[in-house]
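Before the break, one more example. Copy the sequence into your notebook; we will annotate it together after we see the structure.
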Amino acid sequence: MDQSKTAVVIVAAGRGERAGQSAEGPKQYRRIGGRPVLQWTVEAFLRFPMFQNIVVLIHPDDVDRARDCLASYGDRVRLVEGSITRQASVLKGLEALREAAPHVVLIHDGVRPFVSERVIASVLDAITERGGAIPSVPVTDTIKRMGDRGLIANTVDRRELFAAQTPQGFPFGLILGAHEAAVQQTALSFTDDASLFEWLGHPVALVPGEIGNVKLTLAEDIVAADNKLKGTSGMIDVRTGNGYDVHQLVEGDHVTLCGVRIPHDQSLLGHSDADVGLHALTDALLATCGAGDIGAHFPPSDPQWKGAASTLFLQHAVEIVRAKGGRVCNVDITLIAEAPKVGPHRAAMVACISEVTGLDNERVSIKATTNEMLGFIGRREGIAAIATASVVYGEAEERS
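Here is what the structure looks like once it is written out:
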């Protein structure tokens, strides 16, 4: 089969609902290895100079997102708005190639970013004037057919069973004609292009696929793909952040430490409630995802934060961590002051932080020490706090 004019249709118009919601958009735009899934997929075909016509099918709501994702690839990549079903979308992609009249077309899932050059080449080599080709892998699990009442009816012989992958390749005119014929039969719905091709009696060859040519379907698939590209091999991404804060003591009748108002003969001076413990912890959480410090989010010059409870700052930091894929695992705060005594208030402080962070009490540590009468703390001129937070990242896509 003449491969000199070969085009590619990449199907990326779905909403990816099984992968959950994310601020990055549908799963084809989620970042793995620091870049959107769709970029990795498109680049797998850009490695082949023969692919001068690459049509990417996108959802109408994702036009701007897709342009941002693929703008750097130039004229070889063209965006075409898809339709409400995969089958209808592919037809639109094929119609967009009609004028170019390629001899061969490959149709590939936009969320299979790990397709190899070997698989692509094998599919191309197996396409004939009248027949298509798809990559596949043998089914290795024992397959059961379910009967009535959820009971096993029989065990299926798996020796003849293969799981289909993409890209699926066809003579362009035949697959276009098959899609045009299928659209006239409104009751017909096909799960892949090979089954539609087979429906018209055309042969489809199976070529060896690869286990690694996975389709990213669920949130955990995206996390695993990200780990693979980062070379972490599934290792947990644990990050630790540190925070430090100090506030001056002035005349007053109380201090607020770790969310608890404590009667005292002095007060902490600050634009908000000057809670050094929560300020340090807020900075520690922000540090785990490179989100700056508390001053960047709540400038002291902004009058709306005058006298504000620092629990608001901590809640904001927790929300940022969660939005970026983090789960707070443990926090530790050391208060450094000559007075007041922290011990009688420790349980209330732990309860406050637990409520804001969602942590169990045993994951919140609050300690206190004096400065042995040395320095500004020893002279009771101020109170300082050091905080450490441990956060696990890589679990957020399911929840965001």
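The first strand starts at residue 6 and ends at 12. The radius of gyration is 30 Å. Try to locate both features in your own notes.
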